[in-house]
Amino acid sequence: MSTTLNVNGQARTVDADPATPLLYVLRDDLQLNGAKFGCGLGQCGSCTVMVDGHAVLSCITPLSAVGARAVKTIEGLGTVDKPGVLQAAFIAEQAAQCGYCIAGMVMRAQALLERTPAPTDAQIREHMNINLCRCGTHMRILRAVRRASDNLKSASTSPEGQRHG
Ligand code: FES
Ligand code: FES
Questions:
Q1: In the sheet where 10-15 sits, what is the strand order?
Q2: Which residues 6+ apart lie within 8 Å of 118 measured at CB?
Q3: 144 CB less than 6 Å from ligand 2?
Q4: Which atom of ligand 1 sits closest to the CA of residue 47?
Q5: Pairing of strands 70-72, 54-57
Q6: Ligand nearest the Cα atom of residue 44
Q7: For residues 25 and 66, what is the distance between their CA atoms, to the nearest angstrom?
Q8: Which of 22, 26, 41 to mutate to test the pocket of ligand 1 (most atoms within 8 A of CB)?
Q9: pLDDT value of residue 159
Q10: Which residues of the chain have pLDDT under 50?
Q11: Are 98 and 160 in contact (CB under 8 A)?
Q12: Whole-model pTM?
């Protein structure tokens, strides 16, 4: 069955069973391979993407539940040459070992910062708690989210940031 999704601001039409997990559609039909298959059971967070501003586990989200809502994946945040704020912060903190969990971590953090740009450390910890890192990079990941939030704050209070609203 043909379905049109809104992914990273673009209309993308796929031919897939409505019960297909969003993760499979992103990876197999749209070649957006940032989100990863970890457990397939909603227990690890490596498949996290955003739907209408909320972090969702795409391995347990059927295509039929997405509809026309805006899907954002890590590919929508930036590029290798022009990384987004969170991506740059993860690089600066060297917040990855194997990297398998990182796209999910970044997207969960993105959902937090879009709603709560200046979270407390406790809010960051609570929000990120769902996503697991088997390499034990959690402390660096938390520092990267803190750094991204601080960078957003200084950008919004700098004369340059204020000019651009
Ligand atoms: S792969 Fe989706 S939660 Fe683990
Ligand atoms: S960096 Fe390896 S699972 Fe997180």
A1: 10-15, 2-7, 70-72, 48-51, 54-57
A2: 149, 152, 153
A3: no
A4: 2
A5: unpaired
A6: 1
A7: 11
A8: 41
A9: 67
A10: 163-165
A11: no
A12: 0.94
